[in-house]
Amino acid sequence: MAIASPVQEFMAEHGLRYDVLSHPHSHSSSETAQMAHVPGSCLAKCVVLEDDRGYLMAVLPATRHVQIGMLSKALSAQVRLAGEEELGRLFADCEPGAIPPMGAIYGMRMVMDDSLIEQPEIYFEAGDHERVIQMSRDDFLAMMDMENARHVHFGERTWYRH
């Protein structure tokens, strides 16, 4: 598998600048950061949630995890993790766990953890576990604005070795 076609089309259509970095196959966001030799705090991962309005894509650094209570409070809605079986259906063009931070492509609302704003460059998987997209903070934030992503603090630091 490669970068999902809708991702490439979206970035080309909106004139977003990016590079693609290849790395050995990985199995988790922290391993992706290690294999790609990028800081985990700069690797944006996606967690799919749902609430009474439908699906919601939460984007945060690989070094953090979603604080569900904090996010529910910020959104004034009860959010919960989406089921694994639903993810395969929603992201049929992606390997499991290699979801790109582009909710509009998949019909989802988005929320982004504020800590990503601090990073000069952002990396993210976009369909497979052997490539990451590299973007400047400005291009990534422009993409998040195109996605109408809300900026909220909801990530709690996860400790792992890098």
From TrEMBL:
InterPro entries according to UniProt: YbaK/aa-tRNA-synt-asso_dom_sf, YbaK/aa-tRNA-synth-assoc-dom
UniProt xrefs under Gene3D superfamilies: YbaK/aminoacyl-tRNA synthetase-associated domain
Pfam families for this protein: tRNA_edit
Domain of life: Bacteria
SUPFAM superfamilies to which the protein is assigned, alphabetical: YbaK/ProRS associated domain
Residue span, YbaK/aminoacyl-tRNA synthetase-associated domain: 23-141
Example GO molecular function: aminoacyl-tRNA deacylase activity
Coiled coil residues, start to end: none
Protein name, UniProt field: YbaK/EbsC family protein
Organism in which the protein naturally occurs: Pseudothauera rhizosphaerae
